[in-house]
Amino acid sequence: MKRLFELLCILLLTIVGTHAGDAADEFTPLDIAFKRQAVGRFTFDESSAIPLSGFTPNQVVNLTTEYPQIPITSESCRYTIDGSLLRVTSKNTAESALWMGGFNPFATFDISFAESQKQSGTAGVEFATPDNQNRVSVVACFDAGQCRSLQWSVLVNGKQLEEKSTNLKQPARGPFTLRVQVLGTGLNVFIVRDGRNEVVSTHDFSKLIDLRQKKHIQAFEFRLLTQLNAGQEVVINQVNAALTTGVGQADICALTYEDGSPLLDNGRLWFTMSVRGRHLPHPLQGVFSLNPSVFDVRLESIIVFDRDDGLLRNEIASHIFYDRNAEQWRGLTVGFSAEGDPQKIEPKQLWAVSSQRDPRFGFTIMKAAKVDMPGGEEDPHIIYDTSVQKWRVLVCTKGGPGYPATLYEADHWNGPFKQIAGPVDINSTGCLLQKFGGQYYALFGGKGGQFHVYSYPELNALGALDMDRPPWSEGENSRCWPNVIPLPEGYPAPYIALSMDRANYPGLKGWTYGALYLYHGHVRPQTERNQE
Question: Which three-class secondary structure state does DSSP give residue 18?
């Protein structure tokens, strides 16, 4: 009998102890203190560039075959490899090109000019069809060894539709790089010198020719265009085409599994971020990775979207997840590319996207179909909640004030969805459904200098995240994304947050932010929480 009593006491103590432990482990996002660890703005980060094609003179063995010459006028320029340089000369007035690679309307194209007192004539980036009937070009115009202006030109079906010259505020003498960042329906032009990307001009061309069309992507090629008068010379260091990080990154959303748990693969977290170029519709959907124990942000891929309408589209603000049950990559994206459609057939709306191929590497095309979600507009985050066996999406809806966060529900990942909670009374951005202490919470950014925390699924206001040195200063726009991710044991912190600021790139207006900010999050001790 005594032995039985002892066993009952031990069992009771175990139960009490276990429950006490559970109670100690119960916490909310409000109990986490986030401390800033690092910041960085990845502007055309060379270490992350994903190469598409290139020309390095001292690596060329057979110039004629490797980089074929393309005649444009009756006289062609002469191209000669001189050690690590390409020299372009002509005895007469001539215009011709060298083939450099295929064409991608979401890539960055560089022509690096050498240090030379003899630079004269014009040379630069051209996208063209082999018959020379369709040509889009940006060239540097030299005089007395200096580039003093850039010239933009569009030729469609043999007709000159647009031509414009832009003078440089400060003439450029080699070495410098002419950089053309193509963004689907438009492009940005930079002069790169002393490591600084200086904006020279921007151009929109979808009303003249929509280079997102698959037929154009397949037909066009990337060229080094040269136009010389008799006795002129251009000297080239290098030519490159690559997928790049652009002028800033924003709209950060972790890739997850279907239940919203983070995809931690090969010791790295994976994120969608918009690669910034200019105001809408010019950002691109990038995929980045990060070892969460350090700050080694790396561009891994660019995703474009196919609606079966003949175009490849650069949508952004995507939440991509891997559905382990369906063995398929899926997600929701925002149709911002509607801003660039000449016909304006489709409004901005949400699209369900899918791919059998892993979209985290290289250049990926995901299929896109409309989502039936009345009012759903921007920044979606989707989970499958096993407790109710429903798909749920926190999304910014159109209405007052601004784009308030709202919760939707569906039986299938791609809808149709019905509203079940909200909207909240805050103009929201960057929706997130994340588990803390075994319970989902709704997080989003918004005005007021806070990352807001709401209950799930009711969407009742609970408070705000505790952020050390948030990614904004007093009086600055604080509509940033609260991207909070739990980590397993063995990392410096059990949570990280990755957010961005909203500082636009100098010389570019609107939506060209931002820098990335890394935070470590630690749950405050129970004693501190009890004192609150």
Answer: helix
